[in-house]
Amino acid sequence: MNTYAARRAALMAQMRAKGGGVAVIPTAPEVMRNRDADYPYRHDSYFYYLSGFTEPEAVIVLVAGEKDQSILFCREKNLEREIWDGYRYGPEAAREAFGFDAAYPVSALDTEMPKLMANAPAMFYSLGSDGKLDGQVQQWLQAVRMQARAGVTAPTSVHDVRVLLDDMRLIKDADEIGIMKKAAAISAEAHQRAMQLSRPGLREYHLEAELLHEFRRNGSQFPAYGSIVATGANACVLHYRASDAELKDGDLVLIDAGCELDSYASDITRTFPANGKFSAPQQELYELVLAAQEAAVAVTKPGMRFMDGHDAAVKVLAQGMLDTGLLDRNKVGSLEDVIAKNAYSQFYMHRTGHWLGMDVHDVGEYRDPPAPDGSKPWRTLQPGMVLTIEPGIYVRPDPAVPEKYWNIGIRIEDDALVTASGCELITAAAPKTVAEIEAVMKR
Ligand code: GLY
Ligand code: MN
Ligand code: MN
After folding, report:
1. What is the Cα–Cα distance from 57 to 148, expressed in whole angstroms?
2. Do 337 and 260 fall into the same domain?
3. Would you say the CB of residue 360 lies under 6 angstroms from ligand 1?
4. 361 C-alpha vs ligand 3 centroid, how far in Å?
5. I want to staple 343 with a disulfide (CB 3.0 to 4.6 A). Which of 47, 258, 290, 332 is the partner?
6. pLDDT tens for residues 14-66?
7. Region 255-277 average pLDDT
């Protein structure tokens, strides 16, 4: 059984455990960018996870009952359209290639669905997230209910299929880990290339171009998200996009960029001096963020909780803010006070990580199921989870803060695979220590 068929079987087993029923998982719609030009097509991640099929206008239907059935609805062959847009499988070839039990033209969805739903106890779909799908389900349910006098019953309950799929997707299997490691290696290479080509006088888009060059020439289909290339004060804008600012001698450059490879994201941030040499205040804050990341990495292991890495990073950062005078002890008090009152959030205002997978901010619950006392502890880490570890520090000009730190923005982000005994930083090939960065930039 191929990976995708095995995932479908695993999902249907979970559906059966809930009494069985029919699941509907459509792929993403095509979206126009402007007249006659569409956005590059990206399939839906859930759909791809269960099929490996990348054509638009397709729907997976899984029937978990006495006999499991996995069905694909997809575009028909169309020689004229294929001359313009390229090859399409068509139902018969797609069924064969992707291991489905049956396949139909997508135009047959409205006639087939009421038949498949007849007498099924429940529907499984991502209710309330796609108005079109909600409307289709309603229409199919009405068609099934029309057959009531013939003794046919309609599904009486709905489960959100994402709840089941999110938990599956949170733990990466060997195939996924293999792809994610490749994506991570390409992105690490791209960051190194950007560092090596950096020099004062270039513009942010020049470095973005180097990233895209490295992604694409290694087979990546897209960047996993809009690349951030932020020089000088721009690094303090968390969602800054690569733009046209000039790299100035003495400024830092923050790059947050990762490629998507075969549907899997990577997500790396590196911060380096535009001219290849950290100034003393830059190095001081850089070493602080690096120490915070190391503290978070040390607690990223099975049995620890999702938020432990954040708490460990915050502790190091907050202590560093007091030691450097970013925070004034006389005003904010002790380390405990800084943490209890969130005083550190003036310079560190985001979380230290997120799940990573097909989506850069990947699916998966961040909390364990409620404990008997009603509390909802943070998720316990398990082998096969992948998360980012990305502490930072961002100093906006402020008369209360030593001027030598103004406009320094630093983030260091790696992708961690939780292993049996700890975690593996799959992005570790991107130069990271001050010595490593200065050495590759000298070459
Ligand atoms: N690049 C998006 C993030 O770091 O979360
Ligand atoms: Mn990032
Ligand atoms: Mn991230």
Report:
1. 31
2. yes
3. yes
4. 7
5. 332
6. 999 999 999 999 999 999 999 999 999 999 999 999 999 999 999 999 999 98
7. 98
Cα(199)–Cα(246) distance, integer angstroms: 10
Task: Indicate if ligand 1 lies below 6 Å from the C-beta of 267.
Answer: yes
What is the CB neighbour count within 10 angstroms for residue 411? 23
Assess whether 159 and 184 both reside in one domain: no
Between the CA of 299 and the centroid of ligand 2 the distance, in Å, is 20
Burial class (CB in 10 A: 0-12, 13-18, 19+), 334: exposed
Identify whether residues 223 and 108 lie together within a single domain: no
In the structure encoding, which two tokens stand for residue 87, read together? 């090859």
**Do 378 and 234 share a structural domain?**
yes
The residue whose CB lies within 8 Å of the most ligand 1 atoms, and thus the one to mutate among 239, 266, 267, 268, is 267
Distance of CA 148 to the CA centre of its chain: 44
54 plus 156 within the same structural domain: yes
In contact, 263 and 175? CB cutoff 8 Å: no
Domain end: 143, 168, 193, which one? 168
Give the ligand with the smallest distance to the CA of 271.
2
On the 0-12 / 13-18 / 19+ scale of CB atoms within 10 A, 130 is middle
Instruction: Return mean pLDDT, the chain.
Output: 97
Residue written as token pair 């994506």 = 183
User: Among the atoms of ligand 1, which is closest to the Cα of residue 257?
Assistant: 1
* 322 contacts 329 by C-beta, under 8 angstroms: yes
Handedness of CA 270, 271, 272, 278 (dihedral sign): negative
Could you tell me the end-to-end alpha-carbon distance of the chain, in angstroms, rounded to an integer? 49
Question: Rounded to the nearest 5°, which phi and psi values hold at 353?
Answer: -175, 175
State the distance from the centre of ligand 2 to the C-alpha of 74, rounded, in angstroms: 34
Predicted TM-score (pTM) of the model is 0.97
* CATH code of the domain containing 408: 3.90.230.10
The residue whose C-alpha atom lies closest to atom 5 belonging to ligand 1 is 361
How far apart (Å, rounded) are the C-alpha atoms in residues 158 and 149? 23
